Amino acid sequence: MNSAPARHVLLLGGTTEARRLAATLADDPALRVTSSLAGRVAEPRLPAGQVRIGGFGGPEGMARWLREQQVDALIDATHPFAGTISFHAARAAADVHVPLLALRRPGWVPLPGDQWHWADSLADAARLLPALGRRVFLTTGRTGLAAFAHLTDQWFLVRSVDAPQPPAPPHMDVLLDRGPFTLEGEAQLLRRHRIDVLVTKDSGATATAPKLTAAREAGLPVLLIRRPAAPEGVPVVETPAEAAAWLRVTLA
User: How far is CA 119 from CA 116, 126, 200, in A?
Assistant: First the structure.
């Protein structure tokens, strides 16, 4: 008696939650999981199971891949600010009639003592920044520096996994590092570089949250960039466990 073929799951990853979900699903012999990484980081942390790296060629290319690889379910566990791929996934899944779920970590919530200022985009953050400080801890990623390149009165400490490329602010130092970070380490960083304002994205999660606590304890303002809009009509869960439960029901 032949057993049923494994069901194919495409996991759009690159996040901690995606790696945790891939590790959970890798132990299920009824599933074949392929994690797809964008390839923006030179040495990404690879998840368990099969991995593909690189783009699909737009929603049409993703739909073609879903069809050719006989994908049974699609989970979008990309970074909250990787907005384009989420819309491509929604369109491709609809075109091929593959069930789609979004795994999104919740955003950060301010606590008493926080001095948060909200921006709608990197460009909006650059517009608001001069009124908040001159020595900036910038943790928005290496690809968004162009938005701040015209600011000549600010000094930036830029932290990213890989080295940023120009255009970039004229006065800056680059710190190559990858989370998780500690509260003690973040507090020392703020003191050592005499930071007076933190600029970051509302990425959520705990790995990079200590910088917010350090800023609060130091009495520093934080300029937070709101998450971009997400595709409508796509079910959303917040944890890998919820995503695994959805998958079990969907593929039953």
Answer: 10, 9, 10
pTM: 0.89
In the predicted model, is pLDDT for residue 205 greater than 90? no
- Calpha distance 142→165 (Å, rounded): 7
Summarised one tens digit per residue, pLDDT across range 74-116 is 999 999 998 799 999 999 999 999 999 999 999 999 999 999 9
How would residue 143 be classed by pLDDT, with cut points 50, 70 and 90? confident
Amino acid (one-letter) located at 142:
R
Sheet holding 221-225, edge to edge: 115-119, 221-225, 197-201, 135-139, 155-160, 172-176
pLDDT band at 1 (very low <50, low <70, confident <90, very high): very low
The 3-class secondary structure across the chain, one letter per residue, is CCCCCCEEEEEECCCHHHHHHHHHHCCCCCEEEEEEECCCCCCCCCCCCEEEECCCCHHHHHHHHHHHCCCCEEEECCCCCCHHHHHHHHHHHHHHCCCEEEECCCCCCCCCCCEEEEECCHHHHHHHHHHCCCEEEEECCHHHHHHHCCCCCCEEEEEECCCCCCCCCCCEEEEECCCCCCHHHHHHHHHHCCCCEEEEECCCCCCCCHHHHHHHHHCCEEEEECCCCCCCCCCEECCHHHHHHHHHHHCC
Q: How many other CB atoms are found less than 10 A from the CB of residue 57?
A: 12
**What is the C-alpha separation between 224 and 70, in angstroms, rounded?**
40
Residue 170 has pLDDT above 80, yes or no: yes
